[in-house]
Amino acid sequence: MAHLESMRYRKQPGATAIYEDATVISGISTGSAGTTPTVDNANGLYGDAGPPNGAGVLYGYEKKDLDYSSQSAGAIGGVGDTSNSSDRYPRFNVSRSQWITLGLIVILAAYVRLWRLSNPANVVFDEVHFGKFAGKYLNGTYFFDVHPPLAKMMFAAAGKMAGYDGVFDFKSIGLDYVAAGVPYVGMRLMPALLGLAMVPITYVTLAALGHAGDACA
């Protein structure tokens, strides 16, 4: 589709014609204000006399920084032009069969991530570190760590909602949760659900981009 607007062009690899402030329709320059372009060898730009080979076809260009109204005014397919709007702005469209496939995949993903979440009932890596940080947050204990805090704060929030009081210290791998009364299943549930959420998010993103059901799956 032809696209009409004012642009500024800079030389790119493989470009045979570069124009300054040219009006372009489908890659063919009419020059500034309809004049024939001229060459400026020093700056690599063409003004009013045309490119050396006389061709008016552009192979590479860079848009000038223009405000939205000036970019779209007079542009075919711009503001006010409803022709082929579905091509320019495709609708979010996931078919019924894709939703069914997604549902089956989510069920499988939930089984994989949530099955026997309570086993083992002991501290495992990386709970040694994240459980310890969660306890420090809940107790208001100062600590320093080189990593960003969001994941640790989320674990602390999950522990708070599950009933963890911050006393258990997660000192070493293998410590018994049951004997200490730690609500570890609730704390493990948070990362498990986040991992599960990645499945539909990824699937729907690919489907919305127009990929086939097999590719989404």
TrEMBL record:
Top-rank EC class of the record's enzyme: transferase
Record keywords, A-Z: Glycosyltransferase, Transferase
EC number annotated for this UniProt entry: 2.4.1.109
Domain of life: Eukaryota
Name under which the protein is recorded: Dolichyl-phosphate-mannose--protein mannosyltransferase 1
